[in-house]
Structures are given as structure tokens and as C-alpha cells.
Specification:
mainly beta
Length: 145
Amino acid sequence: MNKYAINKGDFRNTGIEAEFTHNVNDKWRYSLGIGYGNPEVKDPSTANPKWVQDDGRIDASASVFYSISKLTSGLTYKYLGDREYYGGHDVPSRSRLTWNTSYDLTKNDNITLTMNNLLDKDNYSNRYGNLDLPYNWKITYTRTF
């Protein structure tokens, strides 16, 4: 059991995680991950603080990657379920599909295209009703020295 002090009070989470990665050949690989936990927080602002669920209990992911020469591309699906109860309702499950492609221009220069929320889902990023960004993309240039 881990216990951390955070702004909301004490936090603890006990659980298990597993990941499997398989290299199909020199170009293709995939990865599957699953986690189950019991994230809880004890809020010091209440008169009689009790441990309550603080985040999703189920965390799952599936990814497929393709690499050739200087190019790497990956598609990742991520799911967060069995989320906490807040404001009279359960926070909805969250699912995201992301595509990332990276190309090494030189040994020190890289350009990356990332496309987030490909399914354009209305995912709650937290219990307060804040939504993730809709479908969006970014191009990143990186230079290492």
C-alpha cells in the first residue's frame, strides 16, 4: 500500500498492474496493459474524514506500433473505468484513441505528429465536469544537443 500526502488530504492506492508486449517482427509490435486499483482519499475538510474512492479503479490500454528506419508510428487506446462517485452520480468512463508518428530527420532532429481523441469523445477529465479537449493535433520539432 502506498500513502502520499496531497492537497486534498491523505491518498492511498492498493492494486495490481500487468503489461504484455510482443515484438511480431522487426517492424511491428503490440502492447496490452491492465490495472486494477483502489485509489482513495481522506479529505481533512470534513468533521469525520473517511476514505472515499478518488479515481477510476480500472485502467486498460492497447497499442500497436510500426517502425521502419527513421519512422515510428503508434496507435493507442486507453480506458479508465469504474470511476468515483461525485455530486450525486458516477463519473463516466473515459476512453481515448491517440495516433503518434515520429520521424528522425537526423540523429539530433526529430519531428512528431500527435493526433489526440481521434474518436472525438466527450470524456470527463475529472470529477468536476471538466471535459478533455475534442479531437486535436500537434506537430512537435525536437533538437537534442
